[in-house]
Amino acid sequence: MKSFTPGKLIYYFFQGLIILAPIVITAWAVVSLFNFVDDILPNVLRVLVPDMIKLDAQGNPAKIPGLGFLTVVFIVLVVGYLSSLILVSRLVNLFDTVLERTPGIKLIYTTVKDFLEAFAGNKRKFNKPVLVSVDDKDVWRLGFITQTDLSQFGLTEYYCVYVPHSYAFSGITYMVQKDRIKVLDDVKSADAMKFIVSGGVTDLADGED
Fold first, then answer.
1. Order of strands across the sheet with 129-136?
2. From CA 108, how far away is CA 93, in angstroms rounded?
3. How far apart are CA 19 and CA 38, in angstroms?
4. Which of 165, 149, 145, 166 is CA-nearest to residue 209?
5. pLDDT per residue over 68-112, tens digit each?
6. N or C: which end of the chain has fewer CB within 10 A?
7. Is 33 left (phi over 0), alpha (psi -120 to 50) or beta?
8. Closest by alpha carbon to 187, among 126, 100, 98, 120?
9. In sequence order, what are the residues at sequence separation of 6 or more whose Cβ sits closer than 8 angstroms to the Cβ of residue 85?
10. Is the pTM value of this prediction over 0.90?
């Protein structure tokens, strides 16, 4: 029979925490989203179709269990389908152009859009993981090449490298000489990002991206 020493108990506690935390946080985020939709839908439907939604004992629109889940799934499917249509795609591009040319809104919209597209979509930027030396020749940071042409800054032999911070939604942009960059062709960009964000705890998996 195994003996449960204080050290073992602490070890088992953190092992359990590592396993449960990502599951619980993900489940909490998903359930919170569905509950949020469940909370606002009865009020919206009460205004649009009063006869469809009854009032509870407190006089508030009664909730319909599962309606939030079905609504979120339906909206995602509809948006995905509509985005594939040429006419809708053109309307989205037109709306995109208007927002990008609107003073004030332009700064916020383009910044958020570019940042999100850097992580996903056809314009993904964080797809070239590299090692970059910016502090000392024997010290390397893990990051991503985001620009290979910096001639507008008068830097012809430089690349732009974005280095995310660990355990944070932030990072630093460096303009570094090419000879101080090592491209990681055998490392997936997603694995490189997880390695950075986890502080180097996550193992890197070999393979093509």
1. 171-177, 158-164, 139-147, 129-136, 181-183
2. 17
3. 29
4. 145
5. 777 777 877 887 777 666 666 677 677 777 777 777 677 777 766
6. N
7. alpha
8. 126
9. none
10. no
